[in-house]
Amino acid sequence: MNRQTLVVGATGGIGKALVAALIERGDKVIAVSRGRDIDDTWPEAVTSYRLKSHTDENIATLINHLHQNKVKISLAVVTTGILHDEDYPVAPEKRLEDIDENALLRYFAVNSIIPGLWLKHLIRVMDKGQPTLVCLSARVGSISDNKLGGWYGYRASKAALNMLLKTASVEYARRLRQPLLVSYHPGTVDTALSHPFQRNVKPDKLFTPTFTARQLLQHIATLDRQQPCHYIDWEGKVVTW
């Protein structure tokens, strides 16, 4: 059987670091990137696929290709996410009056719908025994932990992602043996996503993508598979839903 790992968003800051960490531990990696974003330095252990966009049809086509080639995914990590984007524009809201219809649509499209589509299709090619699927979430997606308010679109879209994962874990557990679905808060990582918001972050709490990738792989290896869905942070600690 052709077992591999899969990284969605493989040329982003965290995605690229994950690919490197997986190669280092000897995995065969499927790296999914958008458009022309391909890393030419990847070795033969990496198979690259480019999607023009993360639509239902495009994801289904790729999954069908993997299925036909008898690929089984032991670990999949979906790293797609958006916090700000000057081109749309999208930026965290400070008050109710800042809520914008188009910005909300963009937040949910990237942070909730795209991972949801991957959840939908990946089940066809996940390893039947003890597969792991991770989506990068955020602590601010926790409803119970929300004490400060603000960031309406980002918070809501990450909370929706958490619900999609939690709900999917019920069905994954019916169809696969001891699957593990993980909503992962990586902390503040030194990438383009967090760059405008790093000013008030303590130096020891601004993490490199390499550190983030290694923490993620370390923690998911220790999680209890009797519980099919976990919400944890970069220290491996539980984040309340």
Shape: globular
CATH topology: Rossmann fold
Q: State the assembly state of the protein chains.
A: single chain
Low-confidence stretches: none
Write down the domain tally: 1
Order of helices and strands: EHEEHEHEHEEEHE
Question: Please, could you describe this protein's structure?
Answer:
The N and C termini lie far apart (36 Å). With 241 residues, the protein is of the alpha/beta class. The protein is globular, with a radius of gyration of 17 Å. 34% of the residues lie in helices and 20% in strands.
Short account of what is shown:
The chain is an alpha/beta fold.
Quick tags:
single chain; 241 residues; alpha/beta; Rossmann fold; seven-stranded parallel β-sheet; two-stranded parallel ribbon; NAD(P)-bd_dom_sf
Give the SSE map.
Blueprint: E1 2-8, H1 13-24, E2 29-34, E3 46-51, H2 56-68, E4 71-78, H3 101-122, E5 132-136, H4 152-175, E6 180-185, E7 188-189, E8 206-207, H5 209-220, E9 229-233
Parallel strand pairs: 1-2, 1-4, 2-3, 4-5, 5-6, 6-9, 7-8
Helix pairs in contact: 1-5, 2-3, 3-4
GO molecular function: oxidoreductase activity, acting on the CH-OH group of donors, NAD or NADP as acceptor
Organism: Alteromonas profundi
Protein name: SDR family NAD(P)-dependent oxidoreductase
